[in-house]
Design a protein that fits this description.
111 residues, mainly beta, 4-stranded antiparallel β-sheet, 3-stranded antiparallel β-sheet, 9 strands
């Protein structure tokens, strides 16, 4: 289960927010303080935290998360039903995903 919290100075663990998404933190990319994109496995069985390699092959759905109010929007599954190995975001809302199986770079427009 994915949670976010503050981690600066005296604010460590303040403003905890349970996003109710089952994914790993490294499958998320920050655009700014308000917007985060995460690749979330469509199906994630019990024990995935202990044996990630069994569940990290896809497909992943892409979510846009508003950190101010916790709103989550499912933007869909990238073409090819890929599992996301790496995710990065540009300031204009374009995502770049690396496919877990092939290593290919995929552009995903979030607008």
């Amino acid at each position: 289960s994915l949670w976010f919290s503050r981690a600066d100075g005296d604010n460590i663990n303040a403003n905890r927010l349970d996003l109710n998404l089952r994914t790993w933190a490294d499958k998320c990319a920050w655009v700014n303080e308000e917007t985060v994109y995460c690749a979330v496995p469509v199906s994630l069985g019990d024990g995935a935290g202990l044996q990630r390699e069994l569940f990290d092959v896809g497909p992943d759905a892409i979510y846009r998360i508003n950190m101010r109010n916790g709103e989550k929007i499912n933007l869909g599954v990238p073409t090819g039903n890929i599992g996301v190995k790496e995710i990065s975001a540009s300031s204009d809302g374009t995502l770049f995903l690396v496919d877990q199986q092939t290593g290919r770079l995929i552009k995903f427009d979030t607008n």
